[in-house]
Amino acid sequence: xxxxxxxxxxxRLTQLTTLDxxxxxxxxxxxxxxxxxxxDTQYQHRQLVNRFRTEVKDHYFWQQRxxxxxxxxxxxxxxxxxDAEHILDKSGFPEFMFHPENIAVACVICNTHKSAKSVLTxxxxxxxxxxxxxxxxxxxxxHLDEWDHHLSFDEIGRIAPIPGSTKGPETISICAMDGxxxxxxxxxxxxxxxxxxxxxxxxxxxxxxxxxINDTFRIMMELAEQSPDALxxxxxxxxxxxxxxxxxxxxxxxxxxxxxxxxxxPAPAGPPATLAFPPPENPLTGSW
Length: 288
Ligand SMILES: [Zn+2]
What we know:
binds zinc ion, globular, 2 domains
């Protein structure tokens, strides 16, 4: 079933050919002051930006075997269908905005979801130079890590973390790959049901009521229409939802125990302690 191939990590672009050192220096200096210069059409050196963007995107497009650096979706050789992705985001680190080693190409979805989220292992220290070790990054780094050491496509086409990898789940979460995963699952159903099934999949992961969950799975089973592929998808999803339910129950129990422990203690002097509750579930986060 798995017919997709993996990309190798990209060789970094170290020497620009379309800008000389002075021109590149101008961009780096100006960019460090204002990250909007990346897309500012009024910038006096707009032509330099265009040359830089074109060369860097072209380099990484082919180096990455025309795949998104995070989800490995195949890209097309048209600049409008993929983005220059700043690994350390350009609003947080404008000083690295025009450094080719801090850039890769990503699909618009991954790039948009990743946005300005922190990707450094230690987000408390501001690096003076671009961190150069894989361990400096909590997500898989397009030029420092091999994609298939952290992520893979499973037997039903989902992007799945490699067991033991911490970067895999983190990359899935930061780039919100669950959306594409559920979409791919829906592709195993008859065309006329895909939209409905996709919407049910998005909902079933947020349901708490067992009867609602069972009803949804019953409808999905009917829509699977005896197709072995679609039935396998429903079974896999059922397992995953059961795991989620167990996790939620454990989290709830822990939160209740923490509340009870706090209530049993005399009130401390000073401001009241805050209890750590699990954040609200986002249906499109977590490993799918
Ligand atoms: Zn992507």
